[in-house]
Input
Amino acid sequence: MMKSAIIGVSGGRARGLAEAYRHVSRGSLAAVSSRQRDKLDAFGSAFDVSARYTDYREMFEREKPDLVHVNTPPSVRMEIFEAAESAGIPAVLVEKPVAIQGEDFLAMQAFARSARVKIAVNHQLHFHPRRSLFQRKVREGAIGNLRFIEASAGMNLAYQGTHALQAVGAFNTGATPVDVFGQVSGPEGLAETSRHHYAPDHCTGVINYDNGVSALLRCGAVAPRVIAAGAVNVHKRIAVYGDKGYVHWTMHGWESRIDNKYESGEHVYAEEDIRGQAAMTEAMIDWIEDDSAVHPLNIDSALSDFSVILGIYESALRRAVVTLPFAPARDLVGKLRGALS
Output
């Protein structure tokens, strides 16, 4: 039985991580860490975890977990990765986004090249049952040759943009982005906050891939709303078009045209999410046990997606198409603040 731990117990995502262990057959939640003692004790009591630490380094040393879930602001993630590497922790599942701008992206990229710790990013939507089914059908050719992908999210690039980009890659498997043209607006998401999820409020990006597929990414107010009402965070979606049909997934429902047959339906996001979270964790255990079973949400894949986000920022600032990969300018967030204020 794999021994798991969580760093950072605030918010709904931490609860989702813990609740998913009811459906994980090969792992258990054995320890939790947070700097805030009151939140730590409340979370530990809620999920019957007695091993509680205000210092995650002490938790690494004493508990020796196999898998660590990192639910912290992006600003402290590199230090946690380095501590996990030093402590010999086998694997880490980290919340998105994996980075915020060029400096931390490049540092993480350099770290990942030689790290022994296995790192994947928590894009649990990849494992939602309906989306997983569609991903498999597209891989098997159910909609023919891919032509175009449209992905969007109601929140900004830092909060949900990487979900949308990961979805593009999940359907357009094996393809590499070659260039991007982007536009951004809105300074509110760039304001200083404790969460450090800095991004313009709205964005549009056109991404071309080496297999000839193009993708349209939209985040913020320019993203379509998938239900008539609801909070801004409930509007994630992806539509994938081939020369023989299409599939369309949202947080609340789905539709497809396969073999000239149209079908549609609804699902309960919370039910899909708990199963997706558990399947994502099980896939991480597979990777711990077998080096060849590389997690589909591995750090290299996540960094490739994040390079597209940096390309959107660079493109908007330069007002030009950006060829990928590229060396991002320093302090892109600061430059965006200056341009949009």
User: Anything to note?
Assistant: The longest strand covers residues 177-185. DSSP finds ten helices and 15 strands in the chain. The mean pLDDT is 96. Residues 139 and 171 are 7 Å apart (CA to CA).
